[in-house]
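Today's session is about reading a structure prediction critically. Students often jump straight to the picture, but the first step is always the sequence itself: look for stretches that repeat, for charged clusters, for runs of hydrophobic residues. Only then move on to the predicted structure, which in these notes is written as discrete structure tokens rather than atom positions. Here is the chain we will use throughout the hour.
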Amino acid sequence: MKIALIPIDNRPICYDLVYDILSIDNDIELFMPNIKYLGGLTTYSDTKNILSFIDNLPKVDNLIVCLDTIAYGGLISSRRTNDDFDVIKKRIEEFKQIALKKADKILAFSSVMRISNNNINEEEKEYWSEYGKKIFSWSYETHKNEVLGLKNKTETDVPKEILDDYLNTRKRNFKINQVYLEWAKEGFFDTLIFSKDDCAEFGFNIKEANFLENEIQKFNLKNVKIKTGADEIPLGLISRAINKNVRFNPVFIEEKSINLISKYEDISVKNCVLGQIELAKSAVDINNYDIKLIINNFKIEQGDLVLGSVINTLKKNIDINLNTPTAIADINNANGSDKGLIDKLFNLKTDNFYGYCAYNTTANTIGCVLLIAIVKFLALKKGSYNNLAFKKIMFIRFMDDWVYQAQIRKSIRENAPLFAEKLIEKRGELNDYSKKISEFLNYYPDEINYSLPWNRSFEIRIEVK
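Below is the predicted structure for this chain, in token form.
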């Protein structure tokens, strides 16, 4: 099978992760543009060279596309670029004409522009550092009053020129999403996802998503979906492209807490899991399943290893076993592993181990672990399984989610802006943890390299040789 992917940006979680997962199946041939053409934290993707890459592809079975990369130069730049609607529409029309000739199926996703509830402008326009929380509150209250039928008395001291710029950016992006909706009506997409990132109950982003949902229902567009999440969407679309009806049995550690809502999301844990399974074109079957999916969910409130709040850990009296093909989604905490779960897991044999993930949000984690499990299951079934590649991706996930995020990152974060220097100091500690992972997986890399590709503490690149 030939798959081409246009990623969100050049982060390891968007680029390296896909390559490493699909390497588990020797029958899958993956095409991605050179990483130098993809955007970063402060740089835009080179859309001209990316369109040229697509134009020069051999005919592929599936083209998976982050439409934000084509339209704006990436997810972050979708909120920053000042390109007007006509310039962007011309760019995506060029993509449309090229893509039609290059793929049997086109699976794509576009973001509903988020509204971050903070004063951090790292991924937003410059004025977010002063007015971010105020714009969020204004958006939230305005939409809330509208939904509840109340007179809008919401006031804000955000300067008019900033509000106008913000609203014009939203309006432009929303119009582009409506163009994609028209393409969907024409049958251009095999699947189209509108993704909601960093959601709340109300806001202009929720209003836009509701409009899109109504249009989807009105025109019975079964191949168009609204999903909470972002970085995991391409993983879910790849699962959807390659899946052959793999059946999952979701088993929640905290069964009574499945209706609670995770941090950074607007749907329950249960609905997130079911939604990701549906996106992956898989089924839930508690009796005749192929893979058991253990969800290490939180009992009262999801912890967050970035914020250092409510650090949850698995109780010792809860039994985790691998007596059947099993994948594990570790969402007890956002942004990293549950140390108690890892302690239990590393005492088990890996015969029926089909994947683990604990990165960022609940949707990120679920989407990632589903793809790993599906690729391994199908590769074993076909006889194209690469065990070394599976061990490699698991080694990296444990090093990232358990070692870096849960053990090391706090000290890196506290040493801003000397992130890189601090990471070098921590190399020995990182390598000490790696030995435990190697013993569990029976996988011993000759060399491990660590770097911070965006020069911040949030993401690490781990390369093994």
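Discussion point for the tutorial: The radius of gyration is 22 Å.
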